[in-house]
Write a structure and sequence with these properties.
Blueprint (H helix, E strand, L loop, with lengths): L13 H28 L1 H29 L3 H26 L7 H19 L28 H4 L2
Helix pairs in contact: 1-2, 1-4, 2-3, 2-4
Length: about 160
């Protein structure tokens, strides 16, 4: 019987693969979001939306880093990092917003909407590509993480 406190995760991290895909999609959509921010709020909206998207992408990267690095040490440590890491990352976002709230280039409504909509939007967008199978943890085969290759046998090869 293995001890739950010393059990660790070996192999490539599915969370890193998913976070990398989320960040790729965020970088791809950021110019469009910044353009919309500029149309609605002008220059302040452009920079505020860009800052908000950057905060969210850094948040996803930090989250994946915490999970992947602590899972290699111990699953118990990973669970603690997920719980307390969430609180720490919320604090980092709060501080990052608080530091720029009075800046000339900041439009707080644009920043707040960007943080909420981008965070949820990217997560819901990524749901289409995440595998819910233990056979393929992380991204679905062919969804971009494994170079588009699938290990799923085609129907014509699986018939007797």
């Amino acid at each position: 019987m293995s001890d739950v406190f010393v059990t660790r995760f070996e192999g490539p991290s599915p969370v890193t693969e998913v976070a990398r895909d989320l960040i790729r999609r965020g970088v791809w959509i950021a110019p469009s979001l910044m353009f919309v921010g500029a149309l609605i709020w002008g220059t302040e909206g452009f920079f505020s939306v860009g800052y908000g998207v950057a905060l969210i992408l850094v948040n996803f990267a930090l989250s994946a880093f915490l999970v992947a690095s602590t899972a290699r040490i111990s699953l118990s440590l990973m669970m603690a990092a997920v719980l307390f890491g969430f609180l720490i990352r919320l604090g980092v976002i709060f501080i990052a917003v608080w530091l720029v709230k009075d800046a000339d280039w900041m439009q707080m409504v644009a920043l707040g909407l960007t943080i909420i909509v981008t965070h949820l939007g990217l997560l819901f967008w990524e749901l289409r590509y995440v595998s819910a199978s233990l056979a393929y943890p992380g991204l679905k085969p062919g969804a971009g993480g494994q170079g588009g290759q699938t290990n799923i046998p085609s129907k014509e090869h699986s018939r007797p």
